[in-house]
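Escalation from tier 1.

The customer reports that the assembly of two entities below gives different structure tokens on two consecutive runs. Tier 1 could not reproduce it. I'm attaching the input and our single run for tier 2 to review.
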Amino acid sequence: MDQFLSLVVSAVLLAGLYAAMAYGLGLIYGVLRIVNLAHGGVIMAGAYTTWVLFTRFGIDPYLAIPIVVPLAFLFGVALYKGLVRFLPRGAAGGVQSLLLLFGVWLVMQNVAYLLFSGNDQAIRTSYSTRGLSLLGVIIPLNRLVVFVIGLLTLAVLHVLLTRTYFGKAIRAVAQNPDSCTLVGIDVERIYTVTFALGTALAGLAGLLLSTLFAFNPSAGAVELLKSFVIVVLGGLGSVVGIALGALVLATVEVFSILVLPSFLTSAVGFVLLVLVLVFRPGGLFGQRVLS
Amino acid sequence: MRTLRQRLPEWLTPWALVAFLGGLGALYVAPLVLGTGAYLHNLMGLTFMFVAGALAWNWVGGYVGQISFGHAAMFGVGGFVSARILLATGMPFVVGWIVGGLVAGLFALLWGHPTLRLRGPYFAIATIGVGEATRLIMTYWEPFTGGASGVSLPIQGGVNKYSLYWYGLYFMAAAVAVSYYLRKSRIGLGLLAIKSDVEAAGDVGVSATYYQDLMLFLSGTFVGIAGAFYASYFSFIEPGDMFGFQRSISFVLMTVIGGIGTILGPALGAVIFVILQEFLIASYPELYLGMYGGLIILIILFEPLGLSGLLVRIARRAGYRPRGQVAGGGVGSAAAGGPAATSEAETTPHMVEEKT
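Tier 1 run:
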């Protein structure tokens, strides 16, 4: 019973991180109809930026959020203005932008190898091994903080997208860019900001991951895949869908430890993906992602 | 009396046949006449395998327009199945290759049938998942793959590297012929229809499911044979190399750099890939990923048809106008290897004509 409870707790904590990680990918796809293959690269870059700030300047990972997130945002702006803008969007341009962003990912990996070598790095703070005891379950402090930050991010995004004028403009562009031009929305600007916002979220996810796990320049592939699984599971419609998708994936992964050898847990997500595609191609909660 | 044109099936023109047989013959005798050194000889054999692999990837990635980042799965399955057959039974290695290829093709169908209903970017990411899941399972399935320590192939009863050149040549010729057939025949038209608009294709009776499954099966089979060839060539394989993500993306790189959706392109790309790998990467291994990443970015931005598109552009500039379906050697010289000569410079721009 104790084991069960602690698995539930760790699944929920993991889900917070996963949701923050997946939302950037989902947002960019939802508005620009582009799968950002550089997502994993930005996650990796976010982790390394946090690591550099921590080891060189002694900045605590969580206090580095105001530095890492704007940097990732600017990187997203540069990526969009410099490359993505020139490609057709939508189903037709999908393959081209996919390959282009894949190229970006390769270049980012290469830069990271040159700068930081291929060794695994990790961030160890004074509180890395601290834990809280709750109902007989010991909760690692870091995981709890990451979970809370993940939830806060989702809440902020939800408010941004549903309550502000700008968020409404983003959702309008997602539905019909042509009509948006007619009512005076600067579509190109919305695209830039959305892409940058998605990239910033990936940077934040990288920061959060760096406090929990070791990473190297090839990190990010697994995160990209998991983000994708979550987007397919939960649909693009809402923050709630993404959160539920993240919860499903985290639960399946955590509980698979009981029956599967540990090296196979990362394969579980992909098997789940294929199963969902076969039996519920519209996603678990009905919103169709597939066209 | 019927002319040669009338005797040949509709999809085959006399010029294509002549160019194909000419290229095949030239490459067949080349080592005997030119006396190439052992290094170049072996490298060319390996290049033939990569050309065939890139062409096979292109059947799904270029003809159907479904980018796969998971072809290492079939490459590895083909390699390990054939290695296990050769180790266990001592049958002729060609049997091992073909069985390995077929098993790989069936494996491709197994995951491809459900995932091919996804299109474009979604299929692409699903294939990353397939590739990684296969790699994880295979790495830990020690009785089959030998785990991290890999499998060594039997020395005796195997095939020596010298003669692999010709087996590679036959294999490549088969891949070129299939590529040409798939492009020119009725199937090719069906594939074009699917690539342009799946739903419209369905309305005129082109079953996307059937065609896509067929293409993935063929592609998986050929890539599996390529893996088996690779195993025979190196006499040692290990899962990290065979199933790795690098392996998967190498097929993407070759095809995209050469020109996706064409016949000349993947062949050209594979040759370039091997040259880069042997000469440039060997000296600057730390720039491996960045170089390919940069190439992809440049190609997607400026010339979506890759090097073959560039060649066609240069040819146009030089006053050359392709007339209809036959377009002589011109673009594909012997320097680019056999398939270039047979590909007729048919660089149909399928990547760029999609609607926005």
